[in-house]
Amino acid sequence: MTQPIHIIGGGMAGSEAAWQAAQLGVPVVLHEMRPHVATFAHQTEGLAELVCSNSFRSDDDESNAVGLLHWEMRQAGGLIMEMGDAHALPAGGALAVDRHAFSDAVTRRLSEHPLITIERGEIAGLPPEDWTSVIVATGPLTSPALAEAVLSLTGEDSLAFFDAIAPIVYAESVDLSKAWFQSRYDKGETEEDRTAYLNCPMDRAQYEAFIDALLAAEKTEFHDWERDTPYFEGCLPIEVMAERGRETLRWGPLKPVGLTNPHDPSVKPHAIVQLRRDNALGTLYNIVGFQTKMKYGAQTSVFQMIPGLENASFARLGGIHRNTFLNSPRLLDARMRLKARPSLRFAGQVTGVEGYVESAAMGLLAGRLAAAERLGREPDLPPRTTAIGALLHHITGGAEAATFQPMNVNFGLFPPLGEGPKGRRGKKDRARAYTERAKTDWNHWISAFGLGQMVSAG
Ligand SMILES: Cc1cc2nc3c(=O)[nH]c(=O)nc-3n(C[C@H](O)[C@H](O)[C@H](O)COP(=O)(O)OP(=O)(O)OC[C@H]3O[C@@H](n4cnc5c(N)ncnc54)[C@H](O)[C@@H]3O)c2cc1C
């Protein structure tokens, strides 16, 4: 009998990983700590519990990246999508689900699978050495005992407990007649290093108006449990810095030194907002130091006051909340295995993807890769042109390790299309071109995966 794969955590990622591995004929032991150990957010003992909204977001697989992720998971026989579809609620173009019926159905299908054993109990340290294939899918609320054990294996700064998200902008939406590429004091060995930042200049009036808008914007409040979480001082929201004094930002992330505006070299900007490259492709830039608790609507209007960002579109907006995640670009190999201990594979939100769907998708891939390994195969990884391949590539190397923050799926993670429709009008056509390319490539990958028949169960 094939040795089992041990999966720790029966959330979105762990449930999908267990299903995929078992469907490929490999036995699984799924360890879930609830109901013996609780998290502050989960309310039930059900597997794949949705802790907050009941939405899987857009179901548009022709022009939306998360809709494409739905499509890829359906093509791969994903349990989370099958049960989501079975328990869908009316929600316009989105896929919303009846959370209790959905979680009950996932729990039942996994419990009834002949190759899956569910064990309730916390794994409160590193798994025993004789578990030779493990998937850790313990999510943003990984139990402290396990988090500490992972820290001891990987080092101090390998695990973040706060998700201090600076907004991320699509590079193509920045107005380069106002912004320019330059690193402060032209630092760097190569031309690429010396031009690693995009800079947006502000005059005094623009800066003062920006500070007023920051102070006036609507903010979300911290939850009680967030107030107790450490490292808050290290990632102060930009509006809190502004509250400490109107000049604070000019002495901090917006300092106007070491940079010359080539569009107007004789005028020294009063303040400069810097955007740092966020992926190897150079399609995404994060606004440095702009983690924020402003509400989403307020963020867009405040950030579009920045010269050069008037028409910016955002791959993600900023935020700060509790979230345990690995520095995956540094710690994981291309197959999501911990370099320091390759018998441990990670999946889900703990790898630095964000969202129910993204987490389930990484579970799907981890389950398949672990099963293939157990069966003595090493299949190709999904191409970067697919939504799952793009996410995988981002977390295992595409993202900058120094600034790594959790990421939703978006077309900025995909290799660019080359020549094609540009501008706002062309946006829909570009999206369609991304999804068409992804679907062709995903179908090839799935059919080449080559592990024989899926066992029929459930
Ligand atoms: C408060 C909050 C609100 C959120 N709201 C949304 C939202 O509205 N929409 C959205 O898309 N995403 C949301 N997220 C993100 C969401 O958690 C993830 O998208 C998704 O649930 C992550 O899936 P996962 O499988 O990685 O983790 P989870 O679904 O959290 O599953 C991890 C599982 O591991 C178990 N576990 C933890 N430690 C151990 C251990 N040591 N031993 C055994 N079991 C363990 C936990 O009990 C849990 O069941 C939210 C997250 C939080 C914390």
From TrEMBL:
List of residues binding FAD: 9-14
GO cellular component: cytosol
Gene Ontology BP annotations: tRNA methylation; tRNA wobble uridine modification
GO molecular function: flavin adenine dinucleotide binding; tRNA (uracil(54)-C5)-methyltransferase activity, 5,10-methylenetetrahydrofolate-dependent
One matching Pfam family: GIDA
InterPro entries: FAD/NAD-bd_sf, MnmG-rel, MnmG_N, TrmFO
The keyword Cytoplasm is assigned to this record: yes
Catalytic activity, as annotated: uridine(54) in tRNA + (6R)-5,10-methylene-5,6,7,8-tetrahydrofolate + NADPH + H(+) = 5-methyluridine(54) in tRNA + (6S)-5,6,7,8-tetrahydrofolate + NADP(+); uridine(54) in tRNA + (6R)-5,10-methylene-5,6,7,8-tetrahydrofolate + NADH + H(+) = 5-methyluridine(54) in tRNA + (6S)-5,6,7,8-tetrahydrofolate + NAD(+)
EC number: 2.1.1.74
Subcellular location field: Cytoplasm
Keywords (A to Z) from UniProt: Cytoplasm, FAD, Flavoprotein, Methyltransferase, NAD, NADP, Transferase, tRNA processing
Cofactors, names only: FAD
Segments forming domain MnmG N-terminal: 5-377
Keyword Flavoprotein: yes
Family matches, as PANTHER family: GLUCOSE INHIBITED DIVISION PROTEIN A, METHYLENETETRAHYDROFOLATE--TRNA-(URACIL-5-)-METHYLTRANSFERASE TRMFO
Annotated function: Catalyzes the folate-dependent formation of 5-methyl-uridine at position 54 (M-5-U54) in all tRNAs.
Recorded family membership: Belongs to the MnmG family. TrmFO subfamily.
Protein name listed in UniProt: Methylenetetrahydrofolate--tRNA-(uracil-5-)-methyltransferase TrmFO
Gene: trmFO
